[in-house]
Amino acid sequence: MSLNFLLGTGKVNSVLKEFVRNASKKTGGSTSNTNCKVKPKRRGWKVQDGHSVQAGHILATQRTTRFHPGLNVGFGRNGTLFAMEAGKVVVTCEKFDPNWEHTWVQRMYAGREQQVIMKKYYNVIPQPQHQRFKLVDEV
Length: 139
Fold this sequence. Notes:
Elements: H1 3-9, H2 12-19, E1 44-45, E2 52-53, E3 58-61, E4 67-69, E5 73-75, E6 81-83, E7 87-96, H3 103-108, E8 117-126
Parallel strand pairs: 4-8
Antiparallel strand pairs: 1-3, 2-7, 3-6, 5-6, 7-8
């Protein structure tokens, strides 16, 4: 039978239903480890000891206070250390003398009252200014 003949008789719907074929397999890909794709935060020190930085450069990112701000270093709300002036980065390990009457210090450093506690501090030593000044106008 031709298709033109079937169009006139109204049998097209029954013929077209015979040609429809359903998929035998589902599409969608792999389902293993679909929820484990977490981007790392890449926290830690960004600038090493002895490098030069400009004002505003991020020195270290941290979740807990591992590094402490020193000279010309700012402390962000999320614990980020940043340079407040241009200069050379110096990382020092200094003795930390906490206020032992404070309840938070008692809780964090319990059992370490007789020990020497050392902390790492980020410092930025400013670049020396040049001494090449030109006298523009006399007073």
